C-alpha cells in the first residue's frame, strides 16, 4: 500500500484549499480503509473553501475536507463483520454516537454527539480514507463510482419526499438544485399525480423537467400561487416540499397548499422571517416536517432501490467530471452555479 | 310544544346582545328539535358580543348566537335513524357539507363549505334548537347537562394532545385557559411522564395544577426554557402544545423542545411574527401539527371515554353557573378573564 | 324521461337472471337519477346468478342486481349540492349510514349498517338508476364510461396496496385476477423496486406482466418461496399482498416475507385453515392488515389520480365489451374464467 | 477485584443447572464490567433448566445462563463514552449486530444476527458480568436493583400495549402472567377507558386487578365474548392484546374485537392452529401486529418513564426474593406457576 497520498486540506483559517501529501491513515479494529475512486463536491465544501462565518466557527484547520465519496475497501479491521476487501462503499457523513437518545430511538441523523466527516473530523478528499464500519454503506457494484459518490443529495431528497404520502398526490417542489431535481424524479417515479417544480433559473428548470417534473414554473416570470391553483382545480397541492431556502418560496408554498396537506422543509434560510402561523399553520392545519440530513438507514436503502431498479439515473445531474488534481476548477464551477453535481475522479 | 321561545340575538351590527322572543323552529326530515338544558359561553361568543373586526366581517345580524349546548330531543324528522325522543345530545359546531375533498377524506373539521353554528347560521342560545342528525352527538345521560354543554374545549384539547404520542412523554403546555387545563388533565391521565403548564395568571396555573399538571410555571416570573431544561435532564420536552397564542410562548416552546420532538399548535396569534425556521424547524426536525377545531368524530368518542370513565371531571373548570336570563352577567364575567367555563342553565 | 326501462332481475330464489321491464325510479331530495352508460359484471354478480349459499342467505328476490356502473346525471333532487345535470358519475357499492362508530371515525367501508347496492337493495343493471348523493362519485369526463364502470377493483387494489409503504419496496402479489393485476400496476407505478406476481394461469400472468409486474411466477410450476428469496438477495419481500384466497398462497407468502414486513389480506378463503401464528406472526413480527372493500373516499381519489394521469389504463384489463341485451353471454364468459373485466354497454 | 466468582451453569446437555466457580471476565474496549446486584428468573431460563426441545437445539453447554439483571459498573473499556464507574445498569437481552437490514432500519429487536444473552452466549447469573456498551441501559438509581432486574417483561408489555393507540380505548388482555399484568397496568395508566383482563387462575386475576384492570374474567367460569360485549355496549373492544398463547384465547379475542380494531400478538402457541382468516381478519379488517421482544430502545425509555414517575411499581409483581445461592429454590417456585417474578439477590 502507498505510504503517502494526495489530500485536499483547509490548511489555515482563511479562504482557499490546498492539495498536499499526507500519510495514508490506518484503520482501527472496526474500520475499513478505502481507496477513493470518486468524490463529489457539495455546497458545504464550497462554504469551507470560502471560509464563511459558519466555517470559521466550526471547522478546525488543518483538516482534510470532503464527505461525498465512493471507494473500494482495501483493508479491514479485525472486528469488521459486514464488509469484505473489494467491496465498493460510500459513507454516511453523519458520524453518529449510537448511544444518545436520538440514536437509540431511530433518529441517528440528529445525533446529539454527531461529528460531520470533512467538517468536524478528517474528510474523504484524498486517495485513501478510513471509514468506521457503522457509517459504511455497501454499494451495488453495477453502478458507477461517480454516480455512487453523488448519492447523498438523493438521500436528502428521499427523506424529504417520503416523510409522507406521494402516490396519487399533487406535489409542489420549491427549488431545483441537486436535491430538488432528485425530489422531482422521486415523486414522479413514486406515482405522484402531478409534480410542479419551481426555480428562478431556466437551466435548473430544464433539469427538473428532464428528471420528471410535469410542470415547471419560473418564479421570476409567473404568478406561482395562481398557476398552482389552476393546475390543481383550485384545490391546492397535497404536498409542498421547500428546498429553496427562500422566505418568499415558503410563503408561496403555504398559499398553494390544500388545507390539511403536508409540508416538508429542507431549505436553509439565512435568518428568521415572518410567518403567518395563524392562517398558514393553525387554520390550514397541515403537518409540517423539519428535514435534517437523511434518516439512517432507511433513506440509503430507498435510494439504492431507486438507483438499481433504473428508476433514477444520477448521471443526469452530474454535469461535470474532473480530475482530482483539478479540484480548484471544480470549486470554481460550483461557485458559478451553472452546474448540477461536480464529481472528481481519483 | 311552545310556539315562542327566548333567544339571545345579535340584532344589529353593533356591540351587545339582546334576549328576545322568537318562533320555535321546525325540524326537517333529517333534523331533531331539542329543548336546550344548558349552554356555555365561548370566547367566540364574546368576540361577537364585542362586535370585533372578525365578527363584523363574518356574522350576519339579526342572528341567534351560541354553539355549546346540551339539550333533550323532543321531536325528530322522519328520516332520523340514530336518535330517539328523550336522548340527551350536544352538537358539533362545524356544520360540514360531507361532500368536499376534506369531508370525504376524514377532515370534516376543515370542511371547505363549513358553516359555524351561532356564527354563520342560527345558534343555540335559545329554549329550543334544531340540530341536523349528522352534527348531533348522543351524550351519556349519567353526566350532567352543564358539564356536557362544556365539552367542546375538551374536544379541542383531545385533538391537540392526541395528534401524537403522550404515554411516557414529557410535555410542555403553553397557556392555561379552558383548553389548556383540559390538555393538562388529558396528558396526565394518558400516562405522560411529566406535564409542565405555563401561564401568566396564578388563578389559571392553580387550575392546571388541580387538573393534573406536574409542574406549573409563571412565565412572568420564571425563565421558562431554563426550568424546562432542568425538569428534563437537559434533553428538552418530547412534546410542545401551544395554546397561548403568544409569539413569545411559541419561541420558548421551540427552545424547550427536544430535537425530533412533536409540536401541536392551537393558539391563535393576532398577526404574523418572526420564526427561526432554519434552527427551530429544519435543524431541530420536529413534526408540527396545525390544529383547527376537533377531528370528527374521533375526538368526541375520546372525550366521552375520558368523561364517563371518571378520568376528567369538567365540573372543575366550570367556575360559574348562571340563569339564562342573566346572560349579560355571564358575558361580563367572561370579559373579566377571572373564570373557567361560564354555563347558562335553561 | 322514459317511463319504463330494461333491468336485470334476480326474480326468484333460484339460479339465473332475467331481463325485464321496470319502472324508471324517482330520485329523492338528496338523490340523483342517472342514465346508465356502462356496467361491469363483478364476481359477486356471478355468485348471485349461481344462487350460491351466500346469495341464498343475503339476496331478497325480486331485486335488480349490479353495482359497478358509470352513468350520466339526468335529474337531481332539490337538496343535492355537489352534482349537476350532465355529470358523469359512478357510485360506491357500500351504502353506508354515516352515523355509526365506524362511519364516524373514518371507516365507512365497514359501516355497521351497510347496505350493498345490487345485493341488499336495488342495483344498477338497468337503463336508469337512483344514486344517493353521498355515495356518488363524480368522474373525469375524459375517461370512457366503460373504463369508469370498471374502477371498483382498482379501488380495492388501491386500498390493499397503499395500506403501507410501496416506494422502493419489493412486493409479492399472490393472485392475478382483476384486483391482483391492478395491484401489480399500482405497485409498479408507485415506485416499487420489484413486483413479483404469482398465479396458476398463464393468461393471468401475462396480464400481470403487461400491467407492470417485474417477475411473474406460475405457482403450479415453480417453487415460489425459493424464487422469491433469489429475487430478493435472500432477504424476502418487504410487502406481501394476498389476493388469491388460497391457504397455500397465504403460507407461501408468509414464508417469503422479510421479518418485520407488511402483509395485506384481501383474498377470501372458503373456510378456516391452519396458520403458524407463532413463527409467521409473533416471531416474524409483520404488520397485517385485513382489507375489506375500499376506504372511503381516499381510495377513489387515488384511483382517479392514477387513471387521469395516464398511469393506469384499465382498458388493458377489459377483455370483453358486450351489449346490455347480451348480458347472459357476459355471465357465461365470467364463469369460464378466461377473462379480465366484462363490461356491458347500454 | 475478585478473580473468581459464582456462576450458574448449564454444564451438560441434560436437565438441571449447577452453581460453580468461574473466572471473572475481562471487558473489551467497548464493554463494561458489572457487579451483579440482582437477577430475575425468566420463563426461558426454566426451559433451559428443563432442557426442553427448544433448548436442546439452541443452547451450547457449558454456558452461564440468565439475562435479566441489574448491576453496578466497576470497570469500563477505553472506548466507552456513555457510562461511568458506579452507574447502575441493566442490559438488553438481544445482542444485536447493528449492521443488518433490520438493525439499520429501526428493528434491532429482530436482528438477523442476534445473539441472546444467557442462551446463545454467556449469561448474567454470576457475580460479575461483561456488558457491551451498545446493549447497556443506564438505570435511574432511585429505583431498587430488584425492580430493575425485572423490567424486561415491562418492556415487552410496553411494546405490545403501545404498538397502537391506548388512550380512551377499551382493551381486552388475554393472559395475566408478568407481561399481561404489566400490560393491564400500562393500559390503565395510559388512559384506557376500560381494561378487561382474562386468565384461568384467580391468583393471577387478582394481580391484574391490583395493577389496574377494570374488569377481570375467569375464562374457565365465564363466557368471555358475551361479557366483553356487555362491557362495551355491544361494540366489542377497540384493542385486543394476546398474551396467553392459547388458540382458544386467540379466537375469543377476535370474536370480542370491534371491526377495524387493533390486535397485538405476543403469546407463543405450541403449534399451528385453525384461524378463520376470512371472517376474523379480512372482513373484520383489524390491524394485527406480531410482537417479538422489545423495540430498541423506545420501549426502555417508556418503561423508565412509567417506573420513575411512580405510575408502575414492579414491586407488586415480584412475589419472591431469594438469595443467589438458593437459585434451585427459585426455579422450583417458577415451575409451580404460583408466582409473579422471582428475583435473586447477589
Q: Can you characterise this structure?
A:
The structure is a homotetramer of 346-residue chains. Chain A has 346 residues and is of the alpha/beta class. Chain A has two domains: 4-150 and 317-345, Quinone Oxidoreductase, Chain A, domain 1; 157-290, Rossmann fold. Helix content of chain A is 29%, strand content 29%. The first copy, chain A, contains twelve helices and 19 strands. Chain A has helices at 43-50, 53-58, 101-104, 145-149, 151-161, 178-189, 202-211, 224-231, 247-255, 277-283, 298-308, 327-336; strands spanning 4-10, 18-23, 31-41, 63-64, 68-76, 88-91, 94-95, 115-116, 128-132, 136-138, 170-174, 194-199, 215-218, 237-242, 257-265, 273-275, 287-290, 318-323, 341-345. In chain A, the strands form four sheets. In chain A, strands 3, 5, 6, 9, 10, 18 and 19 form a seven-stranded mixed β-sheet that branches. A six-stranded parallel β-sheet of chain A has the order 13-12-11-14-15-17, with helices on both faces. In chain A, strands 2-1-4 form a three-stranded antiparallel β-sheet, with no helix packed on it. In chain A, helix 5 (151-161) crosses helix 6. Chains in contact: A-B, A-C, A-D, B-C, B-D, C-D. The interface between A and C is medium-sized, with 21 and 20 residues. Strand 16 of chain C pairs antiparallel with strand 16 of chain D.
